[in-house]
Structure prediction request, 214 residues.
Amino acid sequence: MKYDAVIFDLDGTLTDTLEDLKNSVNYALSQFGFPERNTEEIRSFVGNGVKRLIYLSVPENTPDEISESCLSVFREHYNNHSCEKTKPYDGIADLLKLLKDNGIKTAVVTNKMHSAAEDIVKYFFDGLIDVTVGQIDGVAQKPQPDGVYRVLDLLGVSREKAVYVGDSEVDCITAKNAGIPCIGVMWGFRDRDVLIKNGADYIVDRPLDIFDYI
Prediction:
C-alpha cells in the first residue's frame, strides 16, 4: 500500500449532512424572526465551521451579539438533531470496511463541532474510524493543518504515508498546508472546477475509487 492512513473530511465527503444543518440553521433563524435559508444557500455556506455558517445565514448587517446568540441556539439544536436526516453516501461504508480489512488507519478532520462530529461518526461508522477531530479549543480549524497534524500524531503516521480526502476548496488547501496529497470527491458540496482550481491531486467519482490511490 502507498499510504498507511486516510484522513477524511466529514460533511460532503463521508456523510450528506445538508438537511440537518439546514433545519438547525432555520430553527435558529426563526427564533430571531429572520427569514429561512434554502438548501443551496446552506450548501454554499458550509465548510468553514459553524460560526461562519451562522454569520452567513443571518441577514446582512446583523449585530454581532445577535449573531452570537443565534449561533448558540444553532449549536444546542444541532447537537440534539445531527443524525435525523444525515446519511452516509452510497459506498462509503464499503470503502471504510475495505480500508480496515487492509490495515489502513482512518481519521476524520472536520470544522464541524467536535461533539456533533463524534456523534455522527459513532452513529454511522462505529469501529471504522480510528480518530475524530472536530472544532476543539486550541486546535486551529481548517484550512490550517493543525487538525491533520493532531491525528497523524495520534495515529503514529508520518505525512509521507497519509492522504487527505475531501469535497471542497477548504479541504484542498488544508491538505496543501499539511504537506499531504488531496483526493477530491465529486459527490459532495462543490463541483469539479473548484477542486481543480484549488489543487486536488486526484478526483474520484465513486467512494471505492479512492482505494485505487491507496
Q: What stands out?
A: The chain is about 45% helix and 15% strand. The longest helix spans residues 64-81. The first strand starts at residue 5 and ends at 8. Residues 55 and 61 are 10 Å apart (CA to CA).
